[in-house]
């Protein structure tokens, strides 16, 4: 008998893995400009940690002819839960890329990979060693952790349904447009307002990856530091209504959008009811009114190039 609610066995977002043709330039950006720390290197492969995060790495960068999301990784509490998720997906006809087993990535652990409905590779893992991390100091404008990942989807309703049905993601809020309908779904797997969001786009691709800074001061210092480095700012600084978090969006050298944020909302999951926000209302996009206006040109910057990795598992 199927229960109405799939039991949630995913605990949190771990990392987002990107493949890029301009690997050297990207590595320079993520380390010297964005503030991540290269912890493990291989030829054409770097694992980048956030100083304040217990995760072994929050971004993996791989050199490739094709620009793509290699994978999005989520954590589970233990190996039994990893097995349970894999069995559930397989019985539902979801294509597994790999069976559960020992991971060969930094920190080891136990996990498996599968394709989501549009062909993105997703990894679920448990028992990964905790990284030696530290408290980020006052005034230190580097990422504390990976906050959330937003994906573009050509079928946002189907993608939302996939993550709800198979992985027990819950809807926190929806952004809509009076003419274009529902435009973005904010999805959670714990008390954070969203770990994943799904945006309506022309093709599957990365919309943005977001990094939590220590607080408002550090977020503004970080925004200024990246601006002074000459990086193209797309949108911000401002404060969204959905999630109540701050935002400054920048384009990395490959044209992937990266966000600095802070103060993402923690919701009471027992009492939370999703809102439907009309993002043509200026205060929905930006409660402060400090950011440049969200228009079609700003929106198109985050459509990104079509992902070249759909239904193609990354080589590592």
From TrEMBL:
This is VOC family protein. It comes from Cryptosporangium minutisporangium. It comes from the Bacteria. The keyword Metal-binding applies. Pfam families: Glyoxalase (PF00903). Keywords: Metal-binding. Residues 12-127, 145-263 form the VOC domain. PROSITE patterns: VOC.
